[in-house]
Amino acid sequence: xxxxxxxxxxxxxxxxxxxxxxxxxxxxxxxxxxxxxxxxxxxxxxxxxxxxxxxxxxxxxxxxxxxxxxxxxxxxxxxxxxxxxxxxxxxxxxxxxxxxxxxxxxxxxxxxxxxxxxxxxxxxxxxxxxxxxxxxxxxxxxxxxxxxxxxxxxxxxxxxxxxxxxxxxxxxxxxxxxxxxxxxxxxxxxxxxxxxxxxxxxxxxxxxxxxxxxxxxxxxxxxxxxxxxxxxxxxxxxxxxxxxxxxxxxxxxxxxxxxxxxxxxx
Length: 266
What we know:
There is one protein chain. By secondary structure, the chain is an alpha/beta fold. It has a domain of 130 residues: Rossmann fold (3-Layer(aba) Sandwich). The protein has ten helices and eleven strands. Helix 1 packs across helix 10 and helix 7 packs parallel to helix 9. The chain is elongated. One of its GO terms (biological process) is uroporphyrinogen III biosynthetic process. It comes from Alcaligenes faecalis.
């Protein structure tokens, strides 16, 4: 019997709910984060206090968790009248779960058809620009500059705080064997949640001698930019015939549905 399997590559702690939902539908999972995340050790001079800003913008749930952990370590709570912004639904939900945060203070794209990216958030922020003089963007050590540049182009002071470090995870030989065995037992789909994670997965595929597996997998991506980057990596690997790639929103239910769709297709 061929058993479909999913390779879940989101950061540690972000794959378990997906795995449980897939298991309930009869799909197995391999949890192999593509990136390792580590909090940045910030000095008091580097720390950015939220009370000094009109808006604090978070690019991911990881940014939320690392920033609020640092905030609580300093014995602080979220200040009144400081708005928060999130690129997507998951990040917004993470913000609303933080102590002291009013749900009404969280701005994010509400359209379920939105790509949940910087451009979608800009459409939410642009009508409110008169409210903002100083904005803090909380992110990893690198990221897209587009949204910050849009704010700066409208005369807003923007500070960027790298609250965590991303580094490629190195998969073991045993993990490589699990991937190959899963493909030999049935279909294998790979979830890619960022271009950087796609690079990290590709590096592991190369180092573990799994390029033949890479060519046979199906893929689910959460943004057109990730799909474009994946296609460039496939061409770089000499894979001219593109495998199945399905795009969905970053919403967990949508991801599960997309993974089930690519694994169930004849």
